[in-house]
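tl;dr need the bound structure. longer version: we got a ligand (zinc ion) that a collaborator sent over and nobodys looked at where it sits. i said id run it. heres the input, straight from their email, havent touched it
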Amino acid sequence: MESVNPTEIISCPNARCGQQLRVPAGEVLMVTCPSCEASFTHRPHTQGKRLSQEFRTKSWTLGELMIAISRESMTLLKRQVPQALGTMERKQEWEGFIEFLKVLFNMVDRVATLYVPVSEYLQFLDAVEGAVIDQMNNAFRKQAGKHGIRLDLKSQLLYDDRHVFVNGTAVPWPQRSRETLRRLADHRALSPDAAARVSTAAAAILYNWYRDGYVHTGIA
Ligand SMILES: [Zn+2]
């Protein structure tokens, strides 16, 4: 007999935490660890494609490192070319950062062939990519929750029943958080409290807009 709501136990991927968490089985979930507050995407295992906890934790740690090194590299680059400071737009800065991440990912790919069993290799690379995305999302949410969000002066945020439009590009309304995004459109800003409460789907949209320079963290 199958139970109505099967659950499974998973471990927080943060190597400094490792908290055991009970989650609904068989669903893709955004899980926030109550101990260390790391949010991560949990993907249920498909048959024969299990990534061991050891490599799951390692993928998270590698993700942390890749982000830290890419940030550091951007800082060094700007220090080497001081005149670029201040003239670099967020989008260019973002692209530079992504280039560094790509180089590191390339290296991880090669090194992983030496250290990760063939049976877990592809899942491991997916997990590293997922860990990088989750952790950048976490960092953005933390910042937005602390300082709030405002629209760029040149940004136009409009909506109808089915879509929100940022500078003419339509995005379907995310599940939940409709109220929050509407408030951003109407008031051109979100308080830290409101920004901290947006759904994962809305946070992902806001994060894209942030990278494109359409929104900023901090309320003027
Ligand atoms: Zn944790």
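gonna send this back to them w/ a short note. Residues 129 and 149 are 26 Å apart (CA to CA).
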